[in-house]
Design goal:
Layout (H helix, E strand, L loop, with lengths): L12 E4 L4 E5 L2 H7 L8 E6 L4 H4 L7 E5 L2 E2 L3 H8 L4 E8 L2 E8 L6 E3 L1
Antiparallel strand pairs: 1-2, 1-8, 2-3, 3-4, 4-5, 4-6, 6-7
InterPro entries: PDZ (IPR001478), PDZ_sf (IPR036034)
Organism: bioreactor metagenome
Protein name: PDZ domain-containing protein
Length: 115
């Protein structure tokens, strides 16, 4: 017996407390909906805490973060590695076919909680 493929509701998630977002791995169903290839970089913003640094910066739920600085991120482990220890973030955020850069300044390095 094999495990079923990850779907949006059971995808591994990372709560980025100081930024105020929860990101999750891209699943095949989300990649199909967004017309993305399996090798395309992205983590999905699953939720944004109202009033958080991410919210103030304009990040919205269901947007995709494809790069942190110049580093492409393909999963939440790469996202965590690319953001650990940083107090300034430059995120390339994508919503459907539109990309934009979001800059966020933090008071301290980020803390994380895996779900």
């Amino acid at each position: 017996m094999e495990l079923a493929p990850e779907c949006y509701y059971n995808a591994k998630r990372l709560n980025v407390k100081d930024l105020g977002i929860t990101v999750c791995n891209m699943t095949s169903e989300v990649r199909n909906y967004m017309r993305m290839a399996p090798e395309d970089p992205a983590v999905l913003v699953a939720s944004v805490k109202p009033g958080s640094k991410a919210s103030v910066a304009g990040i919205k739920p269901y947007e995709m973060i494809v790069k942190v600085g110049d580093t492409a991120v393909h999963n939440i482990d790469e996202f965590k590695a690319a953001t650990t220890g940083k107090t300034e973030l430059r995120l390339e955020v994508k919503r459907l076919a539109v990309s934009r850069i979001v800059n966020v300044k933090l008071d301290a390095p980020l803390t994380y909680e895996e779900k």
